[in-house]
Amino acid sequence: MATTKPGVNGVRKKSSRSRAPERPAASKGRLYAGLSAPQRRAERRERLLDAGLELFGTAGFAKTTIPMLCTASGVTARHFYEEFDSRETLLRTVYDRIAATVFERVVSALRATDRGVRDRIRDSSAGYFRYLTSDPRLAQIYAIEAVGMHSELETHRRAKREDFVKKLTKAAQRVESSSLDSRLLSAAIAGAAHALLLEWVLAPRRPSVDKMIDTITYLWVRTLHLDRESAPA
Fold this sequence. Notes:
233 residues; mainly alpha; two-stranded antiparallel sheet; Tetracycline Repressor, domain 2; 2 domains; Arc Repressor Mutant, subunit A
């Protein structure tokens, strides 16, 4: 039972022992399954991206619905729209991840300072084809599903291609003859590489990755007349 004691001017008041203990302030970012709200959202986003890679890269964009993406990722439709406003936006994000990786590998190989010109050219071609063919879903999305599916996505993809060609041009200037137009050469090589990748995706009998690497390397070497450097005087 709570006790009372005389207070100021003889007024009796309750002892402080009678006060109910104060509850601690609610902590921010409560954890569920060991994850905070931002972590849960990031985890859902990754699952959606994984589902996009799987479904767009196998069933194809046209046959993939938002309910299918939600089922594959274990994410509700409400949570889907918290991350992406459409299937196209999800496809664009998946494509951007693929493109960023392959562009970085190609350009980094051409910029290498510890390798000879031919080695840099071959390494850049290998970086392109070995990454995109390491998982057929990557090649399918990069070469087919992201191409011409939606006007806004196509504009975005062309902007990405332009950025890649610019970077490739700067890197190519380190290995090519000044008598050539670096921009045109880079655009031609990028187009040829994409065409070979498309052949790999669509052909009943896929060409070997080594043959595709050899082909693009050959185009570089012959165009830049690098083959003449080893010819006898």
